[in-house]
Amino acid sequence: MHIQNVDYQADNAPQDLAQSLRETGFAVLSNHPITPARIQAIYTSWGNFFASEGKQNYLRDPIRQDGYFPFKSEHAKDADEKDLKEFFHIYPWGRVPENLAAETRAFYADLVGLGVELLGWLDGQLPADISGKLSAPLREMMTGSEQSLLRILHYPPVAEDERSAAIRAAAHEDINLITLLVAGSQPGLQAMDNQGRWHEVPCDPGMITINNGDMLALASANYFPSTTHRVVNPGENPNQSRYSMPMFLHPRPDVELKPAFSADQFLQERLKEIGLK
Description:
There is one protein chain. The protein is an alpha+beta fold and 277 residues long. Helices cover 29% and strands 22% of the residues. It is built from 7 helices and 14 strands. Helix 1 (13-24) links the parallel strand 1 (5-7) and strand 2 (26-30). Helix 1 (13-24) crosses helix 3. The chain is globular and about 55 Å long.
């Protein structure tokens, strides 16, 4: 499984991105505008939040799905065990702790902007028979959307009695169009190839991993497949936390992914399947 390292500044970046997403469902973006120092600063700020009792003041809204989700809130579709993680959901209209708001909202906006640009790249690489199936160009599906989700994840040290029963994030596919995953603070992300074998996804500091979601696979008639991935427990040092920040690019709720089936209908189905609704 060859996940391409796509140089954001290169002339052939759109072609490389589309090829890697088409062949593996994943790509790794380097030399992009979001600096490693900025990423590390965000991890430090939110690490302090997860270490504080103040997080309990932001418990998730079960209707709006924003705010703080305590440890073991979610399980992967069809999984029996809850994932070993806690996290915070950020939407443009949602809650953010006041001391983190300016830094986090600017980060959110820049990731969405980058993601929309990448969707435009994919539009330019689609063959006519695939683009003709779309209800709108991928980039236009994002126009006016307030559904994109920045998830700040904390995987705490893994307790000994949990090491065999559950993992940090069980095998799953993402819901949305594409995900921009800022490199985690520790390794652990793996992707599955067509033969069911697991492969480590590069996580060098500053890299952003791009992967297809189920909405993109559905809208593109699986031209861009949604690849199964997971986050495994640490082997050598289970007492170390891991932080991660995926930005899930969601289209407007009314966008049709296929005839008479909207993005919102798909989202509501999946939220029930993973135990969040």
